[in-house]
Design goal:
heterodimer; A: globular; B: mainly alpha; ABC transporter involved in vitamin B12 uptake, BtuC; 11 helices; 2 strands
């Protein structure tokens, strides 16, 4: 069953158009990767779905309902949570308080503080520390944990490998199967194509605000991906 | 001994300035809104208490049961209906709008109550005191002011650091866009902050109206005391704000002891001295 669909989605930063009619469908339980170069519109797509950027109402359907014009608080309350690019932890809150912010939306489900601490044990040890005292990888785990605390049906991960060492990226990505195991649908935005192909059931490639390729990783050739990614 | 009495008295009265400052600090902390009408809202709360006392025949302290919730509702409505529209990247619109609000409140009060001085009466309680030694006495009223300030600030600390709403306040202060992603409705959170701020200052407003006279034009002076207490204490620290209020109160008491005309001046001088020696205040908490 289709969980999320965008229909000819457009997005603007002022006069600058960042998305030009993006069509995307995500089925319940799927893991979808969105790849593309810097500035291709990947983050914009996730920010628009989350309600941070305005969209025409009917252009985003969640469980068949138009959510395009809803504020972010209503979208997270329906079960769509974003792990924002650059992690964006709240610096004056402790690690645990950052996680608890996920409960503001009031959704109940399998994800509790204890469940998040079992997924990321090092967060439990550092739960009283300021969020800013964590290493980059730990901050990324806290940011994922905070989004999980909203008990999402659909988790949007924006470049969770950004700025991290390869061995740390591996640790962060190792958490994703456990998250899917709880029935959570995933959309992962990633510049690291191999990383993205490794976890995704389906891949979309964006280039300059348009979808240039869509398919199952096993069906796509390297040449197709290279062409869609770079346009050369 | 006169000196010691004056200083103790000043320190206790400092609790009032601390409450004014805590309200100002809360609004600035949560939404970076500098409320120029803060002092006039304090005076408005005093007039509201005056009306309640005169029409219902209540004691000023009992009138708090009506004034505090009423000011909370006013604050919520003011933020939702007006001030939220001024917030954004630019600090100028809220300054201009609250400046305008300040003028409107002053003139409305002048129209409704004339320029006459007003005062609330609590009878003997205002001058009653506990005799510590032959020459040393602590007034019941200043002691009650200080105790109230400590309790209110402790409650604000609990709210900010032990509740979900407090977390939402601090998270919104850090990063309003990201806070939205987790279900925080900024418009509502800002309105609650202003409501709480006005509830806090209305307590201080009633106490101050018992202690000194007020008229429609006394708002700006109250605003300056609040600003000074916040800056002396250090931005972002509620207990620092209490210390700031006490420093201001003691300085005023010393000034008044030297020469009755120097009371207000001495407070401003203390503020400038702190600004020179410790530009970030005594107990700074917020990073720049």
């Amino acid at each position: 069953m289709t969980l999320l669909a965008t229909l000819g989605l457009t997005a603007f930063y002022g006069d600058f158009q960042a998305l030009f009619g993006v069509d995307l469908t995500v089925a319940e339980g799927e893991a979808v990767a969105i790849i593309g170069a810097n500035g291709a519109g990947k983050s914009t797509l996730l920010r628009t779905i989350s309600g941070l950027l305005p969209a025409p109402r009917e252009r985003i359907l969640y469980r068949g309902q138009a959510i395009g014009a809803l504020p972010p608080a209503d979208i997270v309350a329906r079960g769509v949570a974003l792990v924002p690019e650059g992690r964006r932890l709240f610096p004056s809150l402790s690690v645990e308080e950052n996680l608890l912010m996920g409960q503001q939306c009031g959704r109940k489900g399998p994800w509790t503080l204890d469940r998040v601490y079992r997924l990321f044990p090092m967060l439990r040890e550092r739960r009283r520390q300021p969020a800013t005292s964590l290493s980059g990888g730990q901050q990324q785990m806290a940011a994922i944990g905070r989004a999980l605390m909203t008990n999402p049906e659909l988790l949007l991960c924006d470049e969770i490998s950004l700025g991290l060492a390869p061995v740390i990226i591996r640790d962060v990505y190792a958490a994703l199967p456990g998250i899917r195991g709880e029935g959570t649908t995933l959309i992962v935005v990633e510049q690291d194509v191999n990383r993205a192909l490794g976890i995704a059931d389906r891949v979309y490639c964006l280039q300059e605000g348009r979808v240039t390729l869509e398919g199952r990783p096993s069906d796509l050739t390297r040449e197709q991906i290279k062409l869609a990614y770079f346009g050369v | 001994m006169d000196w010691i009495n004056a200083i103790i008295q000043g320190a206790l009265i400092g609790g009032l300035y601390a409450l004014f400052a805590a309200g100002l600090s809360l609004m600035f902390g949560v939404m970076r809104l500098v409320n120029i009408a803060h002092g006039d809202l304090i005076v408005l709360a005093s007039y509201l208490a005056l009306v309640v006392v005169e029409t219902l025949g209540l004691s000023p302290f009992v009138s708090l049961a009506i004034v505090v919730p009423a000011m909370f509702v006013l604050g919520y409505a003011l933020q939702r209906g007006l001030l939220n529209f001024t917030l954004g990247g630019d600090i100028l619109p809220p300054l201009l709008v609250t400046f305008g609000l300040s003028i409107i409140i002053q003139n409305a009060l002048l129209e409704g109550f004339s320029a006459d001085d007003q005062k609330l009466q609590v009878g003997g309680f205002e001058t009653a005191s506990i005799q510590i030694t032959d020459q040393l006495a602590i007034g019941w009223f200043p002691a009650a002011i200080f105790l109230t300030a400590v309790v209110v600030i402790a409650l604000l600390e609990l709210l900010l650091y032990r509740t979900a709403l407090g977390r939402a306040f601090r998270a919104t202060s850090d990063d309003p866009d990201t806070a939205k992603l987790y279900g925080v409705r900024n418009q509502h959170v800002f309105a609650l902050a202003t409501g709480i701020s006005l509830a806090v200052i209305s307590i201080a407003a009633v106490f101050l109206a018992v202690r000194t006279t007020f008229d429609p034009a006394s708002g700006p002076a109250r605003l300056i005391f609040a600003f000074e207490a916040v800056i002396i204490g250090g931005l972002g620290s509620l207990w620092g704000t209490l210390a700031g209020g006490v420093v201001l109160g003691v300085a005023q008491a010393i000034g008044a002891q030297l020469n009755p005309g120097w009371e207000t001046l001495a407070g401003h001088v203390a503020f400038l001295v702190v600004l020179v020696i410790r530009p970030r205040g005594l107990f700074p908490k917020l990073a720049d």
